[in-house]
Specification:
single chain; 111 residues; mainly beta; five-stranded mixed β-sheet; 2 helices; 31% strand
């Protein structure tokens, strides 16, 4: 019985595909100042399960600013590396397992 329970056990949970920025979602964002588009996984892990996908902790300044955002929503005064702030628009939020393979991340967030 124990082996059967362990073989079907799930670690963590897959977030709902509701377009809301939360842990487990791959976020596509647009930085308003330079029109740069970037994708990253919102997660608490130190290493991304995909080497081409950066991680943004929901507890970091940008993670806190984007948490709960929906597609099209702008967040102002988002802290980015180097101490600068900028306006960021959430383009989309999809569960990690559902996302297209990302391009190399162009901007890395602190963890």
């Amino acid at each position: 019985q124990l082996q059967a329970l362990l073989s079907g056990a799930a670690v963590g949970h897959e977030p709902a595909d509701d377009g809301i920025a939360e842990p487990g979602m791959v976020l596509t964002v647009r930085y308003e100042a330079d029109e740069l588009i970037d994708r990253f996984l919102m997660a608490d892990r130190e290493e991304s399960p995909d080497e081409d996908l950066a991680i943004c902790s929901p507890h970091s300044p940008p993670g806190t600013a984007l948490y709960g955002a929906t597609a099209g929503e702008r967040r102002e005064e988002v802290s980015v590396p180097g101490g600068d702030t900028m306006t960021v628009t959430l383009v989309s939020a999809v569960p990690y397992r559902s996302h297209d393979r990302p391009r190399t991340a162009s901007r890395a967030f602190p963890r």
